[in-house]
Amino acid sequence: MHNIDIIKGEFSTRKSLHLAQGIKAGFPSPAEDYAHESLDFNRDLIRNPAATFYGRVVGDSMIDAGIADGDIAVIDRSVEPSDGDIVVAFINEEFTIKYLDLAHRDEGYIELKPANPKYHPIRISTDDEFEVWGVVLWTIKNWRRY
What we know:
Largest sheet: 8 strands, antiparallel
Low-confidence stretches: none
Radius of gyration: 18 Å
Distance between the termini: 26 Å
CATH topology of the domain at 4-11 and 49-140: Umud Fragment, subunit A
CATH class of the domain at 4-11 and 49-140: Mainly Beta
Number of helices: 1
């Protein structure tokens, strides 16, 4: 089940990158003026550095959610998980990344749902050692595989 490797991030270094505005996925307009502002991942994407970790995804159980093998998940442990969130869970001494499904809570169990029909949901009951370890807020994807 181990399908995410957890890595503590270094958030003290600041490096601003230029951010192009108005990148369209449709037909481009050559007359548009692209303004630039800066983007700093540490400032703009990390809410709570002390509780934020990176996780490198291993496997394809979340592929239909756009999360592939080798992608990096930005995980915040300080965020309260909600139904439907993509979470990193610790279950029976292993980490996994899945959708959190709380629909059956009144029936005495919850589920961790994959985003790939090849895999079955993981049913969590009171007999399992289980913790929602953190909520995935962002993913970083390498579109050019080497």
